[in-house]
Write the structure tokens for this entry.
Amino acid sequence: MQHKPTPQIKTLNAGAASPAARGASALMLAFAAATAQAAPATPECGDDTACEQAAGQATQPGGPGAIEIVEVYGMSGAAYRARRSGDLRQLSDLASTPQTMNILTQTQILDSGKSDLKEILSSQAGVTLGTGENGNAFGDRYIIRGHEARSDVFVDGIRDPGMTTRESFAAEQVEITKGPSSTFAGRGSSGGAVNTITKAATPAEDFALVDASVGTDDYYRVTLDTNLLLGSDAAVRLNALTASEDAPDRDGIERERKGLLLSGFTSLGDRWNVIGDVYYLEADDVPDLGSYFDRERREPVEDIPVYAQDNDFLDTEVYSATLRLNGELNEAWRASVAVRYGETENDYITTGVRGTTRDAGDPVAPGAATMSLSTHQGWQEIDYSVAQANLFWDTDIFQRESKFVFGLEYSAENVDNGVFDIQNTGATNCVVGGRGGASPSYCLIDGNGQLVSNPRNLLQREFTRGGVDAKYNIDTVSAYIMNTTKLADRWELFLGLRQDWYDYSNDVVSRGEALAYEFDDDLTNGHVGLVYQLADNGNVYLTYSTAANINGGESDVGGNCGYGGLCGTPEQAAVADPETVENIEFGTKWELFDERLLASAAVFRITKDDVMENVGDSYSQLGTLNTGRNRVEGVEVSLTGALTETLSIQLSAALMDSEVLESVNEDNEGLALSNFADNSVYALLRWEPNELFAIGGAYTYQGKMFGGQPDTAAGYDAETGQYSIVVPSYGVFDLFVNYHYSERLNFRLNVNNVTDEEYWTAAYRSGSFMYLGDARNVRLSVVYEF
């Protein structure tokens, strides 16, 4: 099941195919071009698998009327199956990689009807969402196998820092690595990491494709993907996006996206090439914090009215520029060098709601039940630069095939976090109790139990941008070596070792006190994987991997120890040990039905030690150093690819258990981790009964979760013996139909949440807000190639 990277970039074209995903990624295409060997334009493959892949690539199945999608890393005849990662450092095909990795192809993403990365990831087994709050920023917050991953997001193998909104319009494929992966990712990645492979210019052919959609809730979305040849050895590619919608059945909750990816490719002689890109995304939302948890009824409040204020916003702006040099030094040595500079900005002022009662001193209806509003706000600015160099060596050790990767990386991240100065100018309409006693407030429900008039204009905020309250800087130098060696005909060994040296500083204001943190340290992590080939199409593997994270590693939380920020005084933080993670996984992978289907299963155990623990109010730096220990263990299975020539599947299912093993607070021991779902399933089926139609649907199930602080025990009420905040389990069905009208004109219909299920995807630790999943929505797309 070992396959070499495609050497023939000129054969990417599959007939009239011209996709949402034609061309190669910024990494693999340029690398393949530089290392290509001379060959006929239409090779005769015989038994050579790599040659077959070059000739066919992974075209979307379908009749001659389909506008085919060429999945650069995929397999011919299997719409949902990717053969390999787009990360050059992953030396083995997915079927031979000793680790759980879910790769989502463009065909799968389009069929799912999802576009924001948050939506795409949260439907996958083993991945849940967290919330923002005053203690940590709003934006995309992922949790993989029970562990925070909001800082473990990568683009083309390079870390993408910051809390932002992320989109898929420029994605070739999305890769979710499960389990600690610091050998590849560096610091963090306790539960896994996410890597988006971007579309890139290809010298294979000209094409242009427009995908235009309209739908319910004032939805529209238009994407453009066009590639233009500039002679025989150069090309430019443009991907553009404009989109807008109201959240389904939540009038006034808005989402707007504008994006662009401009990529260029040019050869430098026979062995070297350069590929560069510029990426821009602007996301402007009116955010919705959803409902809240009713502690008496022990369930979220249903049918919550829209309460976001007229000037609420969540605005993200992202810019990055990347340049890569790829080439062949000789037959045994190859090189890839990348540099990137990026800036992100994330600003938000949003409104929350909680259930309460009017105080006895309320002049209208003392003691009456009501809902009061709150404000959550902040801003973050980031600039970062990265240089990464990889050297690849193919050799023999004792006459056994061996492949090495030697890597160096330097990164500098500078993050400013701050708040807005806000004044509410609207007249208060109730008196409610709070931490500081009774005070005038803004209530959604009047004294008669009815929704107040004009609920979206109660606070009438006036605001200005305030100063910096946390100035985070981290410079990191990393060196790593990885090796894949065939030990015998049926045995293969993967070894990885990484060393990170970092200089860290963070000037924070914690409860009005200015504190200056500054320290440096190093992290050592490794990965060992052993694969045994049971048959030509199946194997078993055993893997051990580690990860580590530093005190104050999350860039958006300053001195808020309870949210992943700094714990302890500056002197204490400087001597704290890093949090460490160990993972052991035993699994099996099988390529079935002429290798069109990849079936995998794994049992795993992740143990996190030396956890920093908050002992204050979560918003201060009060905490203990290296006192916590927790564990996640479980089973994950997946089926990806084609069951028959007409039926494709992408299935992932996880059954997991989490437990706090040690804590400074003994009452936490034995409890489950917060924001963790024991059971989750995602199944997407695609059936093509004839050349004109593709019909399918998806089912997403997520078991119940319990609210709490990141990476620690969920909130628990010892008196009642119940977890304090519960996110109920849910199951959602989606449907889609593709109609291939002609070789240039196709149609796609998506109906998401067919049964109009009301469900919640995440909860803040106090239950004060619970994110709502989207209600039923319908979208019709027209895809035209010109």
Summary: Residues 1-30, 32-61 have pLDDT under 50 and may be disordered. The two ends are 38 Å apart (CA to CA). The chain is about 5% helix and 55% strand.
